[in-house]
């Protein structure tokens, strides 16, 4: 694991936890505590983190970077982001899903190419099936809501969920003949999952590993939608 990967894991923990301790950072990141201690000490010195009463949170240097980049994530509406995704990726469907019950989801917005075969009825409750959307919901589930019912339906290992969080997206090939590629990413408000953004289309357009080409683009789109999403209820 290189230095950048270690920093990335520490920052991922800070997204999910408020003011974690060294022990929490080590456990959640999977990095030895001695290594974490040295790493966060250097990050504090550079202004990336702040240490207070044995706990850590985002420092002034990172806040300045976030402020400088904030204009990049201002959008008129989620629908505008979905439409742009179709153009930028070649997907036939860009859809926004929200979990509406322990094992159910509802499509709350979508943008479709004229020839799209993947169509969801807006507002209609559907079961959450195994796949990228279910994986995102489980990977970003808060500690006080462990998604017991969904985990029983979609059994995934902790390693699989950790890798999803590290990547920031989940990909899969589904459908008859494994001909449809799906890529999903979490839409967060703060550290709380509010919905799941997904694109899909034929593997001939998106490839069998759509995340390699479009993962960062989808994650950025999810950030934009998160900034204009209503707070979680």
SSE inventory with pairings:
Layout (H helix, E strand, L loop, with lengths): L2 H14 L5 H8 L3 H13 L3 E4 L2 E4 L1 H10 L8 H12 L3 E9 L2 E9 L12 E3 L4 H8 L8 H6 L4 H10 L2 E5 L5 E10 L2 E11 H4 L3 H18 L6
Question: If you had to describe this structure to a student in words, what would you say it looks like?
Answer:
With 233 residues, the chain is an alpha+beta fold. It is 44% helix and 24% strand. The protein contains ten helices and eight strands. It has a six-stranded antiparallel sheet, sandwiched between helices. A hairpin with a 2-residue loop joins strand 1 and strand 2 (55-58). Helix 1 crosses helix 2 (22-29), helix 2 crosses helix 3 and helix 5 runs antiparallel to helix 10 (210-227). The N and C termini lie far apart (38 Å). The mean pLDDT is 87.
What are the defining features of this structure?
two-stranded antiparallel sheet, alpha+beta, 233 residues, 8 strands, 6-stranded antiparallel sheet
């Amino acid at each position: 694991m290189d230095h950048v990967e270690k920093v990335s894991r520490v920052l991922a923990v800070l997204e999910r936890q408020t003011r974690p301790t060294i022990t929490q950072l080590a456990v959640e990141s999977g990095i030895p505590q001695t290594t974490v201690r040295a790493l966060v000490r250097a990050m504090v010195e550079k202004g990336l983190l702040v240490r207070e009463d044995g706990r850590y949170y985002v420092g002034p240097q990172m806040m300045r970077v976030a402020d400088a980049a904030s204009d990049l994530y201002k959008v008129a509406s989620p629908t505008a982001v979905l439409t742009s995704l179709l153009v930028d990726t070649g997907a036939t469907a860009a859809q926004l899903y929200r979990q509406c019950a322990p094992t159910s989801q509802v499509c709350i917005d979508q943008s479709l190419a004229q020839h799209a075969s993947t169509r969801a009825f807006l507002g209609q409750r559907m079961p959450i099936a195994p796949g990228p959307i279910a994986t995102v919901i489980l990977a970003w589930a808060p500690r006080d809501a462990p998604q017991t019912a969904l985990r029983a339906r979609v059994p995934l290992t902790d390693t699989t969920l950790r890798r999803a969080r590290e990547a920031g997206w989940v990909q899969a090939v589904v459908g008859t003949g494994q001909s449809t590629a799906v890529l999903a990413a979490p839409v967060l408000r703060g550290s709380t999952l509010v919905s799941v953004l997904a694109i899909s289309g034929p593997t001939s357009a998106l490839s069998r590993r759509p995340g390699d080409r479009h993962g960062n683009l989808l994650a950025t789109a999810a950030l934009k939608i998160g900034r204009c999403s209503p707070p979680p209820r």
